[in-house]
Design goal:
alpha/beta, Rossmann fold
Amino acid sequence: MTGRVVIAGSLAQRPRIGGHTWVFLQYLLGFKRLGWDVLFLDRLEPDMCVDAAGRPCPLDRSVNLHYFMEIMQRFGLNGAFALVYNNGERFVGLSRRQVLERTKDSAFLLNFMGYLTDEEILGRAPRRVFLDIDPGFGQMWQDLGLADLFQGHDDFVTIGENIGHPACTIPSCGLKWIVTPQPVVLDYWQPRVAASGDWFTSIASWRGAYGPVEYRGETYGLRVHEFRKFASLPRLSGRLFQSALDIHPAEVNDLALLTANGWSLVDPQVVAGDPWTYQAYIQGSKAEFMVAKNIYVQANSGWFSDRSICYLASGKPVLAQDTGLGRLYPTGEGLLTFT
């Protein structure tokens, strides 16, 4: 089956984050590779727009728009995108009319985390598919009555591959979840074994966009709450470990903990700030050392990192914190898990 798929995401919201960009590119380029016609919809609000120094600015001067347009052009997506600005007041790329026509003629609309909220566009889609790429947060919020990201969708897909399994504590919220592994477009991710460096590397955010969740008497936390457990690894192992870590300078105690234990910390916007430097950083590594968010681990979610998939496709081994992966993927060669 082929046809048209509308993919809605949040690329422009987080410019100069190469890994975040690849999350959407894997789907856009992957569907194209399979013969689908793709339409990408992004949403940006005025308070999200910043210049290169991080200062608020109008859309036309923003790094958000510049970066978004660069990605669309360099990956052959001209004529296949629209940026919905200021609650739909302005469209960049295709017009609202063109978007509505193409959406009506599509097979379905794939909505990353329910990010697209334009009711007119959503209403034109024959089917609205919610794609959960942060398993646990949305489900627990909904069960607690804090937020409902799922309303208005027909089908529900998650990369939390253990959701629905008895060992997973993420609620299904009465929905039938389709589980799926992370995609990778191998045309763009070829093995680079000869380029292996000396470092075990990772690309990660220390805290991320969401706070911990209190759910049924348990606290489901963030990556910081897991990473601290492994802070002494470089010192104890004598190996070289480097992390392109998005961590705020105010985290002085954690920064001191990491550097005292031998971690090399580099700026992710410097070494992985676009799709090309991100790829080069991964492919120049010895292997990945992947620490997951506490919520993924504690809930036994079956989450597997989109970054890890890129390391593996590049011929790089992955040491991955176990989120319940053992029942899903072969481990022991290439992919090793730890607790």
